[in-house]
Specification:
The complex is a heterotrimer of chains A (about 280), B (about 375) and C (about 290).
Chain A lengths: L3 H4 L3 H29 L3 H4 L16 H8 L1 H34 L6 H10 L5 H14 L6 H26 L2 H10 L3 H12 L1 H17 L2 H6 L7 H6 L2 E2 L2 E2 L1 H29 L8
Antiparallel strand pairs in A: 1-2
Helix pairs in contact in A: 2-14, 4-14, 5-8, 5-11, 6-8, 8-11, 9-10, 11-14
Chain B lengths: L3 E10 L2 E10 L5 E5 L6 H9 L6 E6 L2 E2 L5 H4 L1 E4 L11 H11 L4 H15 L14 H13 L5 E5 L7 H18 L2 E6 L2 H7 L2 E6 L2 E6 L1 H6 L4 H6 L6 E7 L4 E3 L5 E3 L2 H10 L3 E6 L4 E3 L10 E11 L4 E7 L3 E7 L10 E6 L4 E4 L8
Helix pairs in contact in B: 3-4, 3-5, 4-5
Chain C lengths: L5 H37 L1 E4 L3 E5 L3 H7 L2 H33 L5 H9 L6 H12 L5 H8 L10 H29 L3 H10 L3 H28 L4 H7 L10 H11 L3 H30 L1
Antiparallel strand pairs in C: 1-2
Helix pairs in contact in C: 1-12, 2-12, 3-7, 3-9, 3-11, 5-7, 5-10, 7-9, 7-10, 8-9, 9-12, 11-12
The chains are: A mainly alpha (about 280), B alpha+beta (about 375), C mainly alpha (about 290).
């Protein structure tokens, strides 16, 4: 269908499509560019009209960048975000992938579809409702302001994605290939580890990306459960509220720092995302 | 190499009976073909031998050992799937070595065995390639290679040639037969194509609706079909069936244009079974054109030509007899009777098959 | 493959439960407890520093249900989700279709359009302030060029609109990717068959793309709904619920009550009520969707 556009639109039609695409691209890029521009502004410049193009409308300054980069906390929180996201992703994959395989291949008292849905329903819970109980739990486990605490928490929330996505991916692995492995002498675990898993690498990458993204993004629990040592970026950004209100330029710098790694990552992985993201809806 | 014995094997899914009372005892190194229309139970039976399906009743013995309780690995069988089922993420060598690696054989031995098997099948040059880089025929060979490398006791092949184009299929058929004869491993082969079955099997098992219809050497199935299904299934084009009435003095007729005189033996049986009506079976290749000049044969069938299909050195003629009977004749020469023209066919008495209309069994 | 005897059946059982077990146990452990705890608080009177002083039955629930602020926040949330999600779904699907039909440079476009998904809500929220502020915000400046002035940050409606726009910006890629996957999984032959009949690719979209991608879109809507009803970071960073309480989504309101006023009792009760409502909405919605598929 790559040539649908060529065969099926009049001249005007193609222009329409191109314009939509270009507008979409601009729409997406604008906030990024604005963040970059803002990071070089002083506070007054941020709020004065017409200060758009650096060097032309205003004098750019590296003040905000200095302020942020000289604050060790900013690098710390970047690291924290990375560690927590990576740890969560790992834990989720380790717990969720075998579960997804089990649901894909075997029968249980309840329909495997329902079990998968049950996992998904965990996400319906508004986090605010369980904020306090989790806070108290973390206090009791002495996991406040630690990476492990956040990792444990985020894993619970994100397990659903892994189970739902991987279950669908595993169902697509050819049963015949698994049977061939069985005839060759593989036991159940070997079939999972040596056949099903390697053939589902795509799905694993997709899951990893989604879990990483959600974990990276999480603000509510991060701000409530961490302060100094394990504070992740969202908390750090929120805390750039000082007594004078928010320092937006600093926030802009933080934004860029926060956005850059995943966005760069997304350029490499968007190919996998498109492939794996149907959550089982294609087959139902 | 082993003898496979199936005794009263049945498979039921809830209320549905997939296989009923399958009995067979192979000889060592025999090539057994299971053939029948889809849904007849042939694949299910083979999967039960492999251990991929549980048996509802009966027993299976391989090499004298009861295998019902064993998982596939313990049964030491190898299987070639219709869609090859090659491991897509491994190269050819990996595919063939998989079973050996699982058995923790030393690397050198694995290397040797794989090379040997690859040589037999002519795929040594493909060992580093992945399945998706191979053609259908090559993939089939790799699947065969994977099966033979372990030197198992039994080969199971589930319609391995169905996905290959016609020309290659004939070649591969011959190769599989040669391979099997060379290795001498007892083999079960499932197909829905009766031509394939007849050309490959030492013995052929015809199945329908889960039951064995007949077991025998190919020529026995052709010459002495046990019932109307086998008679109609084996042989191409299919046997003609005409419903006829038996008269006195050993003839049967279906209208004035269709009168057959039976040999003594058949007449006896018809009388003994007291059959008023019978199914008459005549193979298209046994119908001969009655020439004007020749002696008039006893069994003359007068009809009108409907369709003529030249087949190269032979001709298929569709004949309509007496309005409601249609016969297909396979004439062993190039003829071109005009459609609509009258034509008389004859058939030798010993080429006539009779079937009891109540039981469809051959008489 | 079926187990052939009792021993095999047992080992298969062991395997499947051992694989599934850890995940299930984990979820049960980490969710049942907090819910019970929240329930516990909802029936109690919590005082900062002293903990639970006494149990007050349904008083917290009653207070929540009669609190206009509670209902107001629900309204705001409904508006937010009710506008943002459909827009995201439509735009996401549209973009996916454009890429599918053969836009040149689709690789780049796909990367670019995916980027917002990975941004931090909080960061975008703050960025939004600088974008929408009437003094020098990019949006205001651009609108000025066509002599339009919209009070984004100074009114509730403006703030809500700005939040919705940002939400759309961030989450459209999510639907975009799912729709892309769905449209990509339609076999080429079906597109070919449609191409023979259709006069423009929009027709193909209407008769082939949309119906066949609908199941996936349903899931996308469902997921966005679930996440949207919980949304916190973006609007909080943008407006903190203000001015006043005019842009207080439920999550913000509950956050303020629980974390800033430490009224765990009322906060938990509201949370439970919200949970019930959200669950009902989602279940009803889900079933409606399933019916339409079948």
């Amino acid at each position: 269908m790559d040539n649908l556009l060529w065969t099926h639109s009049k001249r005007g039609g193609k222009v329409v499509v191109y314009s939509i695409a270009v507008v979409a691209a601009i729409w997406v890029l604008l906030p990024f560019l604005w963040a970059i521009v803002n990071s070089f502004k002083t506070l007054e410049a941020t709020f004065s009209a017409g200060a758009i193009i650096p060097f032309l409308n205003f004098r750019p300054t590296l003040d905000s960048w200095n302020e942020v980069l000289s604050d060790p906390q900013s690098i710390n929180s970047l690291m924290s975000s990375a560690i927590v996201a990576a740890g969560t992703t790992l834990l989720v994959l380790v717990l969720g992938t075998p579960a997804a395989y089990s649901l894909a291949r075997f029968e249980f008292k309840w329909q495997s579809k329902d079990i998968a849905l049950w996992f998904l329903s965990q996400r319906v819970m508004p986090p605010v409702v369980v904020l306090v109980p989790f806070y108290i739990l973390m206090v009791q486990l002495r996991l406040i302001d630690t990476w492990s605490g956040l990792i444990l928490l985020y894993s619970t929330f994100n397990l659903a994605f892994c189970v739902v996505i991987m279950r669908d991916i595993f169902r697509d692995v050819s049963k015949e290939v698994e049977e061939a492995a069985r005839i060759e002498g593989a036991n159940l675990w070997q079939i999972f580890w040596m056949i099903a898993l390697p053939l589902s690498l795509d799905g694993l990458i997709v899951t990893a990306i989604i879990v990483f993204a959600f974990s990276w993004n999480e603000a509510l629990f991060a701000s409530a459960l961490t302060s100094q040592h394990a504070a992740t970026l969202p908390e750090f950004i929120l805390s750039s509220r000082s007594t004078q209100g928010v320092n937006f330029n600093v926030a802009a710098v933080n934004t860029i720092i926060a956005i850059a790694p995943p966005v760069i990552m997304s350029f490499f992985v968007q190919r996998y995302l498109a492939r794996g993201l149907s959550f089982g809806a294609v087959k139902g | 190499m082993a003898i496979v014995e199936l005794e009263k094997v049945s498979k039921r899914y809830g209320d549905v009976v997939a296989v009923q009372d399958f009995n067979l005892s192979t000889t060592d190194g025999e090539f057994v073909v299971l053939v029948g229309p889809s849904g007849c139970g042939k694949t299910t039976t083979m999967r039960m031998i492999a251990g991929l399906e549980a048996i509802t009743a009966g027993s299976i013995r391989i090499g004298g050992r009861d295998v019902v309780g064993m998982i596939p690995r313990e049964r030491d069988v190898a299987m070639v799937f219709q869609n090859y089922a090659l491991f897509p993420h491994m190269n050819v060598f990996g595919n063939m070595a998989f079973g050996l690696r699982l058995r923790k054989l030393p690397k050198k031995q694995i290397e040797e065995q794989v090379q040997r098997a690859a040589k037999i099948l002519g795929i040594e040059s493909l060992l580093n390639r992945k399945p998706k880089e191979l053609s259908g025929g090559q993939r089939q060979r790799v699947a065969l290679g994977r099966a033979i490398v372990r030197e198992p006791r039994v080969f199971l092949m589930d319609e391995p040639l169905s996905n290959i184009d016609a020309k290659l299929r004939v070649e591969m058929r011959a190769e599989i037969i040669k391979l099997q004869r060379r290795l001498g491993v007892t083999t079960f082969y499932v197909t829905h194509d009766q031509v394939e079955a007849l050309s490959m099997g030492d013995r052929v098992v015809v199945m329908l609706d889960g039951r064995v219809q007949q077991v025998g050497a190919p020529k026995d199935l052709y010459n002495k079909p046990a019932n109307r299904f086998v008679a109609g299934f084996i042989g191409s084009p299919a046997m003609n069936f005409v419903r006829a009435r038996s008269g006195e003095d050993g003839n049967i007729s279906a209208g004035p244009d269709f009168r057959i005189f039976l040999p003594e033996s058949l007449t006896e049986k018809v009388r003994r079974l007291d059959l008023g009506e019978v199914w008459v079976g005549i193979r298209p290749e046994h119908l001969k054109i009655q020439r004007e000049s020749g002696a008039i044969a006893k069994n003359a069938i007068n009809g009108r030509v409907e369709v003529v299909e030249p087949q190269g050195s032979t001709t298929i003629i569709q004949l309509s007899v007496g309005g409601d009977i249609r016969l297909i004749a396979l004439i062993n020469e190039q003829v071109e009777p005009a459609p609509g023209s009258p034509l008389t066919l004859s058939v030798a008495s010993d080429a006539i098959y009779l079937f009891d209309p109540a039981t469809d069994q051959s008489v | 493959m079926e187990p052939a005897n009792k021993a095999q059946r047992a080992s298969e059982s062991l395997f499947k439960y051992a694989m599934l077990g850890p995940a299930v146990l984990w979820v049960i452990a980490f969710t049942f407890f907090p819910i019970f705890s929240a329930l516990n608080y909802s029936f109690s009177n919590y005082v900062l520093g002293r903990g639970i002083t006494n149990y007050v039955g349904l008083k917290n629930y009653y207070a929540a249900l009669t609190d206009p602020g509670f209902w107001h926040s629900l309204l705001i949330t409904v508006i937010y989700v009710g506008v943002a999600v459909p827009v995201e779904v439509c735009l996401g699907f549209l973009f996916a279709w454009i890429i599918t039909v053969g836009l040149p440079g689709k690789g780049i476009f796909r990367s670019v359009l995916t980027a917002p998904l990975f941004t931090m809500e909080v960061a975008i929220g703050y960025l939004g302030v600088t974008l929408f502020t009437s003094q020098g915000g990019l949006v205001s400046v651009l609108l000025n060029l066509i002599h339009v002035q919209i009070p984004w940050m100074s009114t509730g409606e403006g703030g809500l609109a700005a939040a919705i726009i940002l939400d759309v910006w961030q989450w459209t890629p999510f639907v975009f990717l799912m729709a892309l996957a769905a449209l990509g999984s339609i076999p080429d032959e079906i597109y070919d068959a449609a191409m023979l009949e259709a006069s423009s690719h929009w027709q193909v979209l209407r008769h082939v793309g949309l119906p066949l991608a609908w199941p996936v879109l349903t899931v996308a809507i469902l997921l966005r709904l679930i996440e949207g009803l919980k949304t916190f970071g973006l609007p909080f960073a943008l407006t903190s619920g203000g001015p006043g309480t005019s842009t207080q989504l439920f999550s913000i309101m509950n956050y303020l009550i629980t974390i800033q006023f430490f009224d765990f009792g009322r906060g938990s009760a509201m949370g439970i009520l919200y949970l019930i409502m959200v669950s009902v909405i989602i279940t009803v919605f889900f079933q409606q969707m399933r019916k339409r598929i079948d």
